[in-house]
Amino acid sequence: MGQLCGRCMQLLRDFVAFVQRMSSDLLHSIKECLTLIIKCSCLKQGSSKARQLYKPVLQPHERVTAQEFLQHIERGFETSPLGKDPLEALRTLAFSENPGLQQSAALYYLHMSQHMNIPLPAEHLEPFYALLRSADLEVQQMSSLSLVNFLLEGNIDKELVVQMGLLEPILDLLESDDPTVQCNSCACTMTLAVSESNRDAIGAARGVTPLLSLANSYDPRVQQNAVGAILNLTQSERIQQVLCKEGALPVLIFLLESPDSEVQYYSCAALSNIAVNAQHHEAMLRTGERFLLRVLTSLLSSPVDKVSSQACVCLRNLATSADTQAEMVSQDVLPKLCSLLASGSEAVRRASVALLWILSQHPHNQDALVCAELLQSLGTLLSAHTTDPVIAGHAACIIKNLSLSKNRERIIESPCVEGLLQALLSIDIREDSLHYVTSCLAELTKEEGATLRMVQRMDEPLTKRLVRLAGQVEHTEPSFQAASIIQHMIDHEKMMRLLKCHIREIQAYLENFLSHQEIRFQQLGISTFCRLQADPEFSLAFRKSQMAKLLQQVRQQTEETQELLRAALCHTES
């Protein structure tokens, strides 16, 4: 471990001088004190008020401890700061009634928290109880700050802090009149609240009310930490109930207009967590005559990425009803979302495309969503971020939802088809989003215009990708959808020419389809076989394969099924 810096050494020298002065003047002070007490008339009245005029003096064991503590420091005590001897000394100093000694202990812990990056043993938490309970403001400031430092560096177990009984004095400090103490105690509470058990303990100790009060503080540091603590508490559904009961919703909603972007983010994220539970939606939207939707929509234009991203998340969580979605669309949310799709932030892009996906699910919104600007933005987004499974999956779902409307032709003419084909090439087969991309393309190929557009863009890599997807057996849905895309494009000469380079692979997946347990695979296999059979090269390859035998098996199964159906119908009619 390194040596103490010059500033710290000077502090220690000053401290040594302080204790030495106290020791030399101790006897004189006692005599003077006794003289004053004797002269005071309170003794005759039986009163003890005079004792309050004097600061606590050093007890004999405290003086010895202080002197030993200084000697340890002078000998290079920093080499073993967490040993048994310093712990006993710190306990004595911390539990002293003398503010100067408590300040020494608090200062020592503060120094350790700022210059040491090692775990603090559990027994070292004991002195914190007395320090946080101290009536001296400087002790409160230093001890609460050192506890914050230890927590932020991960050098104290967060659950252990609560188990050692430190939560109560921390929450009591929330009601201090000093902004520094408020700031530090809020920061402690915020850090402790990342643990589920701690969140329950904070709620049970009625820590919510003072936090809500400090969320309106005029001190930006206090306000940030208070709202940050509330954000962490909203991760618990039980505490959400407490927060709403204590009036948190109006506080958080109006903080969305704070000039501080950190406060905006924390309050928006807290509201997003609460909005996950639909039972709170009515109360959230009722506040300020649906003020929440308006301010969230305005936050989409925030220059701070995490604020606009979190606004998208909150709107998405609120968009569970058709009426709420319609209100969002009516507030011109679409142009802002189009801008966010082109953001340089991955989080913003993902959040905005997820919100659009929710909005696209309701039929009444689809006509408004099928605009040239949005389709252009989606196509560009897919082309620019082909390897992002979240973007590809959501964008594919949006396009598929919109393609069910009367505006399918506009989708076909947009860059969306090309973007989907590029995503098809790039997404890993293990990603769920590949299913959404292939499903969307398969849906579009049912329209001849989309099929022609796709055939124009087909090349060897895309053809190879489709054939391989159809042939793999581990992921059944992408396999079926890829084979469906191929089947719809077979009648085009260009596609047939490209497929001839993969006769063996196509034959293999068709054989697999014909022996598949699901009828839809068998039907797709038969349909594809019939179309390919018209080509001489495919026909020759099929004659040399087991295809005829498999078709015969399907035919036999079908006849047996028909016999069973006839028997069942006859039994029903009789």
From TrEMBL:
<keyword id="KW-0677">Repeat</keyword>
<dbReference type="InterPro" id="IPR016024">
    <property type="entry name" value="ARM-type_fold"/>
</dbReference>
<dbReference type="InterPro" id="IPR045156">
    <property type="entry name" value="Vac8"/>
</dbReference>
<dbReference type="InterPro" id="IPR000225">
    <property type="entry name" value="Armadillo"/>
</dbReference>
<comment type="similarity">
    <text>Belongs to the beta-catenin family.</text>
</comment>
<dbReference type="InterPro" id="IPR011989">
    <property type="entry name" value="ARM-like"/>
</dbReference>
<comment type="similarity">
    <text>Belongs to the eutherian X-chromosome-specific Armcx family.</text>
</comment>
<dbReference type="GO" id="GO:0043495">
    <property type="term" value="F:protein-membrane adaptor activity"/>
</dbReference>
<dbReference type="Pfam" id="PF04826">
    <property type="entry name" value="Arm_2"/>
</dbReference>
<dbReference type="GO" id="GO:0005774">
    <property type="term" value="C:vacuolar membrane"/>
</dbReference>
<protein>
    <recommendedName>
        <fullName>Vacuolar protein 8</fullName>
    </recommendedName>
</protein>
<keyword id="KW-0472">Membrane</keyword>
<dbReference type="InterPro" id="IPR006911">
    <property type="entry name" value="ARM-rpt_dom"/>
</dbReference>
<dbReference type="GO" id="GO:0071562">
    <property type="term" value="P:nucleus-vacuole junction assembly"/>
</dbReference>
<feature type="domain" description="Armadillo repeat-containing">
    <location>
        <begin position="214"/>
        <end position="403"/>
    </location>
</feature>
<keyword id="KW-0926">Vacuole</keyword>
<feature type="repeat" description="ARM">
    <location>
        <begin position="247"/>
        <end position="289"/>
    </location>
</feature>
<keyword id="KW-0449">Lipoprotein</keyword>
<dbReference type="Pfam" id="PF00514">
    <property type="entry name" value="Arm"/>
</dbReference>
